[in-house]
């Protein structure tokens, strides 16, 4: 099972990237899983009307080769960030009907439905299937910038188990 994990935050102190790293460490240790971790800070992005950059073309190829995806996102104006939107607009050919999951971090407790924009885009545009469990963390789950809530850590472990189990069944 080849999984592409996309950490979409461009912030150097990203909380969603921490969630992505935790999942990446656990998922990469699972037998039969090949993990491709993409840190969007390392991809030169630009709007579609200006054409894809070489790194966007490479990302589109990596996305097309994956069996499934995990999107890590922060909440921006109750939706996804501009970097993730550029990826969705320019690099997602080849993902039709594939499986995905969402890791989300936000400043407050009440933005947990903000990942639904990503869900709607993936399900409506590419008819993708989503793991019903979204991991949502907020500022209160972090101490000194480090994830410290054991409940979120348990949710991450459950996310990995279910993502791997369902993901492998869907590509079998």
Describe what this molecule looks like in 3D.
This protein is of the alpha/beta class. The chain has a single domain (2-171), classed as 3-Layer(aba) Sandwich (Rossmann fold). Helices cover 40% and strands 22% of the residues. The chain has five helices and eight strands. It has helices spanning 15-28, 54-65, 82-90, 116-126, 150-171, and strands spanning 2-7, 34-39, 68-74, 99-106, 129-130, 135-138, 142-143, 146-147. The strands form two sheets. Strands 1, 2, 3, 4, 5 and 6 form a six-stranded parallel sheet that branches. Strand 7 and strand 8 form a beta hairpin. Helix 1 crosses helix 5 (150-171). The longest helix is centred in the C-terminal third of the chain and has 22 residues, at 150-171. 37% of the residues are buried.
CATH class: Alpha Beta
**What is the helix tally?**
5
Q: Say what the CATH topology is.
A: Rossmann fold
CATH superfamily membership: Flavodoxin domain
The whole-angstrom Rg is 15 Å
Give the SSE string: EHEHEHEHEEEEH
How many strands appear in the DSSP assignment? Answer: 8
The helix content is: 25-40%
Separation, N- and C-terminal Cα atoms:
9 Å
Q: Which percent range describes the beta-strand content?
A: 15-25%
Which parts are unreliable, with pLDDT below 50 for 5 consecutive residues or more? none
How would you sum up the major sheet? 6 strands, parallel
In terms of structural class, how would the helical and strand content be classed?
alpha/beta
Total discrete domains: 1
CATH architecture: 3-Layer(aba) Sandwich
What's the pLDDT, averaged over the residues? 94
> What global shape is seen?
globular
